Amino acid sequence: MSKLGSLNLGFIVLLVYIDQNFISIPMIIMAILYFLAFLFSTKKNVLGIFLFLMMISTSTLLYIANVYFLIFLMKNYHSKTPLNNTLVMVIILILYEGVHVLLNSFYGYDESVIKWLGFSICLILFIYLKPLQKEIDIVLTFKYMLYGFISYSVLTIGTYINLYNVSEFFTVIRRFGYLPYHKEEGFLLINPNMVGKHSAFIISCYLVLTNLKKIRIAPSNLVLIIYVGIIGALTVSRGFILVLLLILVLFLFMNFIKQRFLPIIVVAITGIMTFLIISKLFNQLIININKRIFETEDISGTRFTIYELYLDIIMSNVDIFIFGLGMQDYILKLQNYNSNIFLASHNIIIEVITIWGGIGLLIVSLFLVKLITESRVFMNHDFYHKTIVLIPLLSLLISAMFGQFFISYYHTFGLLIMSLIILNQEEDKSYV
User: Fold this and answer.
1) How far apart are CA 142 and CA 47, in angstroms?
2) What is the pLDDT of residues 364-413, one digit of tens each?
3) Of 134, 123, 130, whose CA–CA distance to 374 is shortest?
4) Taking Cα atoms as reference points, which of 82, 391, 145 lies closest to residue 254?
5) For residue 344, what are the CA distances in angstroms to 62, 140, 307, 364?
6) Dihedral sign computed on CA atoms, order 378, 383, 385, 388
7) How would you class 364 by CB atoms within 10 Å of its CB: exposed for 0-12, middle for 13-18, buried for 19 or more?
8) The predicted structure's pLDDT at residue 187
9) Is residue 87 part of a domain?
10) Could you report how far apart the first and last alpha carbons of the chain are, in Å?
11) For residue 235, what are the domain limits?
């Protein structure tokens, strides 16, 4: 990216901070700057620019980022738009949700065509997966995503310093990514669980890219990954801790049976260093995590209760079980069946059945299988390689088993595209 492009991204970060802490920045200014960010992009880094902006955006800005991303993909690959099964699956999902929008509007629900178009735009991105796999620089894309996350964390830390006393973090704020007693309608993401998901995903991508020798195991890189891990831990997200533990166990096990001991040693040393830093600087964090996991009556965070409420409605209503309720405001619709439901499903399978029924679950399953098996590099490799490159995707799917996925499509679809591109990566044989 040119110097102007880098300056533009830096200016965007600055304005997000100003908006969150001082005065509201007009949306038109941010929209122009986002357009310039993509205008300065290339085929090699356009996904990276999108992921950078996604990390620091929420609400309308996320919508804008997705629209621009699609526009520039269409511009870059207007002669390569694939007419294949992926396009067919995308059209089916768009139309299926569109039918729900029409029917729900007919029955008096306040459905939004703008939201449906936003969902459609995010889905259409997947038809450009193959050209992206061939064109993008995966290392550069990862770095933009990493720097976007770091920018978000710095913005959040700056907001905490401005709005609170630093000493209040563990008593008032409690979880990184949360803003108690202050506005949450700014440009900045306010969702500790989503921050934890981003952190775990970035770490999983780093593990894979270093294992494929795309990224060197350098002290500077390890410092950044330790920082990402600490931010993830500060969210006190059970999902982050579970996902991180599972992907680390899988990564270490696969390298052990392959007798590749350097990655095991590096992970062990990095893990010990991270724990020592947290113990020294954030001792209260260890206490909070211990309370959240081991000193609670419900380690699931009421998720099991939520599952029970959802499943009771799904199994008691054939129409929901088969067709679902549609994506928009599905919690309000469920309250017609049980007024005690006021939280999202926190499980991708229950989520899909609730919004699209068993028919939707079948379509989504076929869609995901199609996206994975389209990667010839992935399909032609041995079990070890397949398992390693699947780790970022597994990170997303495990997170989705305890959180949102399709309902949070502005965030999750970009990460899904990144994980699918990683499936198509070969080991760098020129690495020394």
Assistant:
1) 9
2) 999 999 888 887 777 778 889 889 999 999 999 999 998 889 888 888 99
3) 130
4) 391
5) 20, 35, 10, 19
6) positive
7) buried
8) 65
9) yes
10) 27
11) 3-300+346-422
337 domain-assigned: no
Instruction: Tell whether 414 is covered by a domain.
Output: yes
- CA 208 to each of CA 252, 274, 393: distance values in angstroms, whole numbers, following the listed order: 12, 19, 11
C-alpha torsion sign, points 196, 402, 126, 93: negative
Distance between CA atoms of 360 and 382, rounded to whole angstroms? 32
- What pLDDT digit, counting tens, does each position of 241-267 carry? 999 999 999 999 999 999 999 999 999
Contact 423, 385 (CB under 8 A): no
Q: For the chain, what is the radius of gyration of the CA atoms?
A: 21
The predicted-structure confidence for 84-114, as pLDDT tens digits, reads as follows 778 889 999 999 999 999 999 998 888 999 9
> How many domains does the chain contain in total?
1
How many other C-beta atoms are found inside a 10 Å radius of the C-beta of residue 246? 16
pTM (2 d.p.)? 0.93
Q: Quick one: tokens of 425?
A: 């990566």
Residue type (1 letter), 406: F
Residue 70 lies in a domain: yes
pLDDT tens sequence across 350-369: 999 999 999 999 999 999 99
Please identify which residue in the block is written with the tokens 């010990």.
272
How far apart, in whole angstroms, are the C-alpha atoms of residue 421 and residue 125?
13
Measured between alpha carbons, how far is 135 from 131 in angstroms, rounded to an integer?
Answer: 6
- Which amino acid, one-letter code, is at 424? N
Which residue in this structure is represented by tokens 């350098």? 218
Give the integer Cα–Cα distance in Å for 251 and 261. Answer: 11
